[in-house]
Design goal:
Number of domains: 1
Number of strands: 2
Strand order of the largest sheet: 1-2
Distance between the termini: 43 Å
Low-confidence stretches: none
């Protein structure tokens, strides 16, 4: 997985942009609105998608692009973006939880 080719890079980038777009623009799940907040989610989502296959596993051998297994990559991207937003909300005090 560390030696990723261009197809793998592009696959992870597309997964990250789609997941980040759905969470940011669709679900309005962010700490700050705006384009740069979305861009930061894309970076975090890319890292999550990259870690998805090695951490979660290799699911469904037929649903992969090279070394990138799509389901674990999508789940990893979602998990890391949600974790990053939750931590940012907790640090800024915008969590909305019970005190």
């Amino acid at each position: 997985m560390p030696g990723l080719d261009f197809t793998g890079f592009l696959t992870l980038l597309i997964i990250s942009v789609v997941v980040s777009g759905i969470l940011h623009f669709g679900a309005k799940y962010y700490v700050l609105p705006g384009f740069w907040s979305f861009c930061s989610k894309v970076v975090v989502g890319y890292i999550g998608a990259w870690l998805g296959t090695p951490v979660i596993g290799r699911w469904w051998e037929g649903v992969n692009v090279g070394e990138v297994f799509l389901v674990p990559a999508i789940l990893g991207s979602i998990a890391l973006v949600v974790l990053a937003v939750d931590i940012a909300k907790m640090v800024t005090g915008d969590g909305g939880g019970a005190s």
